[in-house]
Design goal:
The protein is built from 14 helices and 20 strands. The chain has about 500 residues and is an alpha+beta fold. The strands form 5 sheets. An 8-stranded mixed beta sheet has the order 8-12-13-20-19-18-17-16, with helices on both faces. The longest helix is centred in the middle third of the chain and has 20 residues. The structure holds one RNA strand of 75 nucleotides.
RNA sequence: GACCCCGUAGCUCAGCGGUAGAGCAUUUGACUUUUAAUCAAAGGGCCGAUGGUUCGAGACCAUCCGGGGUCACCA
């Protein structure tokens, strides 16, 4: 498909042709870069300019001021921006420079100096075109007003275009790179924490013949050779547990999960989850591990445990508050619902002004009350513990509290961040619970779990006592980078396809 | 899925019934230390799409397509 070129695109193609006619390769192979822009800016000293007598920088031209026989441009590399000064006579190809544009990638060799206006710059002795840009980029200009505030002119602000063309967003709004650099640091810190403790990073199938380990609608696909339906995983859980059965004592996986559900500020159809399983541990051990882990990550990635998110400051310093689910409801509603059956809970929900479906089970109603009345209060890190059995088909029964499980969810800033159990390893109990899920499914709950015979067989071989945890990485990054939309922590968030 | 807002030049936006506008970007000219460089001139648009109302629609109405936001769904 060809598309009509606008005047700026046509002009750049003409310039490209001219450069080629002049013997310039507009797309050369390498450039020997010696310095990052920021390294020069921070290390250059006026009393010792000889330390920067020959530098080679490379990057994209982001601003261009031509003044006849001399020009200034700003060159942006991964570290930042530095000004280059180009003068006829100093470089042999100054005339070709007129065919360069904002957006072109260039290499500049030269010496560092400070201009009359005080800006540290590179005085070019060689100029090399490294990539001719054929499409114009938006130009963001930033200036400080009299009060010292930064004012943006012509920012690239259209969110749709920024998400669809993230490459352009990163060029024009380089400050957003910080979020993604932090994302990488967060994941690296987490990985290192686990590796240091001897737990093994593993990979398990994304294409699964049965989906399980969570309650969600899957994406469905088809394998041609096997002529069979496969599902994109909604969770790693059942495969990681098989590895614990196999004898590994600590395994974790950081990977994409896929859920075929609504999209909003905290949900993308593909998202990154970390799941870890450690043998011979229970959920109480896991609480201590998680709070230490989060402290470690915050210290490593942010150098502080006090995190600003929206209007709140959250402290990730251990220990985190622990609050049983039913007590949390009592604390925020004044209602003691312990021991109530579904009928009694329906009445309580009505008193609290919460609408629930008439056929809702006790677990669903409790969850509804929690979501409506408690969750948004949980700003500081809080472990909600002791979830009802029917809400937790893969968690071990509580060792002392009837009808409850050994489970916690971690809430921060009113959102769920982690979910963990003492993992159910009794194969007979597990079969009963999954069969109950099957009955929910038959009753119309299309998100109830499927029964995975092979997983049950693995449990029959025997899984040691194990604690497991899942942490939503995207939300963790949002928390630690003070972003309120998941789209701002994903390079390429899911968008609707545009018609041709 | 419901409701509200948005879609006009490469970018950011104004125009809200009467000949399509501004700033930046772009082009041409001047300028060998500029800083949103400056000065002078110029080009650039199926006003998201399709129907309708009207003598006349970028504007009003309807539908559709994209996006943002609230809510619902996501235990």
């Amino acid at each position: 498909m060809t598309r009509e070129l606008n005047d700026q695109e046509l002009r750049r193609r003409e310039e490209l042709d001219h450069l080629i006619q002049h013997g310039v390769n507009p797309y050369p192979y390498t450039f020997d870069k010696t310095h990052d822009a920021t390294a020069i800016l921070t290390n250059f000293k006026d009393e010792a300019p000889e330390e920067f007598k020959t530098v080679a920088i490379a990057g994209r031209i982001m601003a261009l001021r031509r003044m006849g026989k001399a020009s200034f441009c700003h060159i942006q590399d991964a570290s930042g921006r530095i000004q280059a000064y180009l003068r006829t006579g100093d470089i042999p190809n100054y005339d070709d420079f007129k065919l360069y544009d904002i957006g072109d990638i260039v290499g500049v060799k030269g010496y560092v100096f400070r201009t009359k206006m005080g800006e540290i710059s590179v005085h070019a002795t060689e100029l090399t075109l490294l990539c001719k840009s054929l499409a114009p980029i938006p130009i963001a200009k930033e200036v400080e007003d009299d009060a010292g505030n930064k004012v943006m002119y012509d920012a690239f602000a259209d969110k749709e275009l920024r998400y669809r063309q993230r490459y352009k967003d990163l060029v024009v709004n380089p400050q957003i790179r910080d979020t993604f650099v932090k994302r990488s640091k967060i994941i690296t810190a987490m990985r290192r924490y686990f590796d240091d403790r001897g737990w093994l990073e593993v990979e398990t199938p994304i294409l699964q013949p049965l989906y399980g380990g969570a309650l969600a609608r899957p994406f469905t696909t088809h394998h041609n050779s096997l002529d069979t339906t496969l599902y994109l995983r909604i969770a790693d859980e059942l495969y990681l547990k098989r590895l614990i059965v196999g004898g590994f004592e600590g395994v974790y996986e950081i990977s994409k999960n896929f859920r075929n559900e609504g999209m909003d500020k905290t949900h993308n159809p593909e998202f990154t989850m970390m799941e870890i399983y450690v043998a011979y541990k229970d959920v109480y051990w896991m609480m201590e591990m998680v709070e230490n882990l989060l402290e470690h990550i915050a210290q490593t990635a942010l150098a502080t445990t006090d995190v600003t998110i929206g209007k709140h400051t959250v402290s990730l310093k251990p220990p985190f508050r622990r609050l049983p689910l039913l007590e949390s409801i009592q604390e925020y509603t004044g209602k003691d619902i312990s021991g109530m059956d579904a009928a009694a809970l329906h009445i309580v929900a009505k008193e609290l002004g919460i609408e629930v479906e008439p056929k809702a089970t006790a677990g669903k109603i409790i969850d509804e009350i929690f979501s409506e009345k408690v969750e948004h209060h949980l700003i500081q890190p809080t472990y909600i513990t002791d979830y009802p059995l029917e809400m937790s088909p893969l968690a071990k029964k509580h060792r002392s509290k009837e009808g409850l499980t050994e489970r916690f969810e971690l809430f921060i800033n009113g959102q769920e961040f982690a979910n963990a159990y003492s993992e159910l390893n009794d194969p007979i109990d597990q079969r009963n619970r999954l069969e109950e899920q099957s009955r929910f499914r038959a009753g119309g709950d299309d998100e109830a779990m499927t029964l995975d015979e092979d997983f049950l067989h693995a449990l029959e071989i025997g899984m040691p006592p194990t604690s497991g945890l899942g942490i939503g990485i995207d939300r963790l990054v949002m928390l630690l980078t003070n972003q309120d939309s998941i789209r701002d922590v994903l390079f390429f968030p899911q968008m609707k396809r545009l018609e041709a």
